[in-house]
């Protein structure tokens, strides 16, 4: 059996949903579809999920979400009408949902309704069973998958039937609706693939696979034909967004192959992701921006046991979870996602750390990026030297280098404003 997940652009309107139907019906091994909420139909358009989050923020501010919700309703009703399915039923559901959002059911409930309605419409259009993710996907507080999920899926899925399942959400053990992080329908697809021990997990999107570099930056960038689970995680960690970095976890060690394919060009081979040894040599380059940097210093900082842990705990109290760390004899540098803390939170954190740990200095600055080169069995020092020379020749400053912490990546700190230029230069050198 094949599990096929369709992303937001693949279900953005009736035309796209017709393509989904043609794809599903062209191979009878495709028996389960996991779907996202309708995404953008063009560059200026809005994703349904973004609109739903907006509705929830309006309610939080004491306003009604009605004006924004009307846009959502219009889109779903239009899709239903164009697919000739029961739009009255969809309108009723939309009314109920708006009332719930206005009543303050919260962000996760609001955001999940995009996938819910999308799956309802698509299941009716295909004549397949609708299986609500809330009844089968159990999500732990830390957003990992609870093992009870697999038992529930095994109980609910009838091998004789075909299903459409909404992605992105489930329920906690306590029965509270919860979403994964953004782009989380990839995780749902992976969970379902594991539950049915699928021969293949297809991930349908609007590009023909995972590129060696973002094609918006590098024109004519090549699609990677095949890469390992490990390499895809390394690449997504540094900003390649085609496949959610947490979606490998449910099938890790089970060996279900994944293929990333293009709904608009189903004949293209796409990228295969396999649970095997890494593909030799560098496979892609990407940059992740939007990072801030904390630099702190104190003489004999590490003389006391447990300092790193104590300092990190303080960062966590201020909502900051660093993604990259560097340690010197008397200093620490941490990089974190700038969205985690605004300037006043950063200032309060610096004051508290200085006071409690008697720091000699601490600064926070913004506008950083990490350039990552992923690949297996690479001679990291050669790759690093090539990349560093190229960056230098192109006038791009580097802030740190890390190779050796993983055997499948080389990471280089750069300024965010030079990230695109850096990706282009390194791509041209390495590929
Ligand atoms: N609709 C959700 C999002 O936009 C989840 C997904 O598409 O995977 O993040």
UniProtKB/TrEMBL annotation:
Pfam families: AA_kinase (PF00696). InterPro entries: AceGlu_kinase-like_sf, ACT-like_dom_sf, Asp/Glu/Uridylate_kinase, Asp_kinase, Aspartate_kinase_CS. It catalyses: L-aspartate + ATP = 4-phospho-L-aspartate + ADP. One of its GO terms (biological process) is lysine biosynthetic process via diaminopimelate. PROSITE patterns: ASPARTOKINASE. The keyword Secreted does not apply. It comes from the Bacteria. Signal peptide: none annotated. Keywords: Amino-acid biosynthesis, ATP-binding, Kinase, Nucleotide-binding, Transferase. Residues 1-262 form the Aspartate/glutamate/uridylate kinase domain. This is Aspartokinase. It comes from Candidatus Ornithospirochaeta stercoravium.
């Amino acid at each position: 059996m094949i599990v096929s997940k369709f992303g937001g652009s693949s279900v953005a309107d009736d035309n796209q949903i017709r393509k989904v139907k043609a794809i599903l019906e062209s191979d009878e091994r495709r028996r389960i579809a996991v779907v996202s909420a309708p995404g953008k139909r063009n560059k200026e358009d809005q994703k349904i999920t973004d609109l739903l989050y907006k509705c929830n923020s309006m309610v939080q501010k004491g306003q009604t979400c009605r004006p924004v919700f009307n846009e959502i309703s219009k889109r779903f009703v239009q899709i239903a009408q164009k697919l000739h399915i029961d739009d009255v039923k969809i309108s009723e559901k939309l009314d109920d949902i708006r009332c719930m959002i206005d009543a303050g059911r919260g962000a996760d409930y609001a955001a999940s309704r995009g996938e819910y309605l999308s799956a309802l419409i698509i299941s009716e259009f295909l004549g397949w069973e609708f299986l609500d993710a809330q009844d089968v996907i159990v999500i732990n507080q830390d957003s990992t998958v609870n093992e009870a999920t697999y038992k529930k899926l095994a109980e609910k899925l009838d091998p004789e039937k075909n299903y459409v399942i909404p992605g992105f959400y489930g329920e906690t053990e306590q029965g509270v609706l919860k979403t994964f992080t953004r782009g989380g329908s990839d995780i749902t697809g992976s969970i379902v693939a594991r539950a049915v021990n699928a021969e293949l997990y297809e991930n349908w999107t609007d590009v023909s696979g995972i590129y060696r570099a973002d094609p918006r930056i590098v024109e004519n960038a090549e699609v990677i034909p095949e890469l390992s689970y490990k390499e895809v995680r390394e690449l997504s960690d540094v900003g390649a967004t085609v496949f959610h970095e947490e979606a490998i976890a449910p099938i890790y060690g089970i060996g279900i192959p994944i293929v990333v394919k293009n709904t608009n060009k189903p004949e293209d081979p796409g990228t295969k992701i396999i649970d095997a040894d890494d593909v030799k040599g560098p496979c892609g380059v990407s940059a992740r921006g939007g990072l801030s940097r904390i630099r702190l210093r104190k003489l004999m900082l590490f003389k006391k046991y447990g300092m790193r842990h104590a300092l990190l705990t303080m960062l966590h109290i201020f909502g900051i979870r660093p993604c990259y760390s560097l340690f010197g004899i008397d200093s620490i540098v941490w990089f974190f996602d700038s969205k985690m803390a605004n300037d006043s939170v950063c200032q309060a954190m610096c004051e508290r750390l200085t006071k409690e740990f008697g720091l000699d200095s601490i600064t926070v600055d913004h506008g950083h990026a990490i350039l990552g080169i992923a690949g297996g069995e690479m001679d990291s020092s050669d790759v690093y030297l090539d990349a560093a020379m190229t960056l230098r020749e192109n006038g791009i400053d580097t802030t740190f280098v890390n190779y050796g912490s993983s055997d499948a990546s080389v990471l280089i700190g750069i300024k965010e404003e030079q990230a695109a230029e850096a990706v282009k230069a390194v791509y041209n050198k390495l590929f």
